[in-house]
Amino acid sequence: MVLGGLLGVVAGILAVGGLAKLRAPDTTVPMLRALGLPGSVGLARLLGLVEVGVGVAALLLGGWVLAAAVAALYLGFTVAVLRLRAGGDAVSCGCFGRASAPPTMVHVVGDGVAAVIGVAAAVVAAPGFLEARPDLPAAGVPQLLLTALAVWLGVAALTVLPDALVAARRVPMAEADRRARALRTFSLETPLT
């Protein structure tokens, strides 16, 4: 049951990413080109459509085939992000349309963990929401709310966190040195009471 819930979360994140690609496919085109693929709006939309279809189906139906499809997509994303990072291209990951962030290790780890969840869910043929619903309290409403919250947090982790980490590294060295001197001066001049 736990793997079914986790599969629902990573499938939900996949579906949100697909919807973002359908709404703003032009933001995925540079990533496709940087990977050496045809950089077209049509291909970006097709990828988005596949993500929505697999994500929604895996969340609702579960099963080994859909879990394996989720795992395969996330494995592909992991490889794509690693290639983007190795290539040094200054493009966004293209994951979530306009909210996409630069490809970072946050993406690699997040996509890798999602792929592992997909594989584990495929091995045990984890159930989807519709199959698990009769066994869930309150007709599954709390499960859906928790899944929606986890999906939202997952999307935030893949969009906001990478930008924040990149911005944190942008502190100019002179500013960092000034801050360090100020802290040392403050600690040396602060009387012990």
What is the total number of structural domains? 1
Helix content: over 70%
Low-confidence stretches: none
Class per helix and strand makeup = mainly alpha
Sequence of secondary-structure elements: HHHHHHHH
Radius of gyration from the alpha-carbon trace, in angstroms: 21 Å
> How is the biggest beta sheet arranged?
none
Distance between the termini: 57 Å
Task: Give the number of DSSP strands.
Answer: 0
Q: What is the number of helical segments per DSSP (H or I, 4+ residues)?
A: 8
What does this structure look like?
By secondary structure, the chain is mainly α. The chain has one domain. Helices cover 73% and strands 0% of the residues. The chain contains 8 helices and no strands. Helix 1 packs across helix 5 and helix 5 (105-123) packs antiparallel against helix 7. The N and C termini lie far apart (57 Å). 37% of the residues are buried.
Keywords:
mainly alpha, globular
In short:
By secondary structure, this protein is mainly alpha-helical.
What is this structure's SSE topology?
Elements: H1 2-23, H2 29-34, H3 41-61, H4 64-87, H5 105-123, H6 129-132, H7 141-168, H8 173-189
Helix pairs in contact: 1-3, 1-5, 1-7, 3-4, 4-5, 5-7
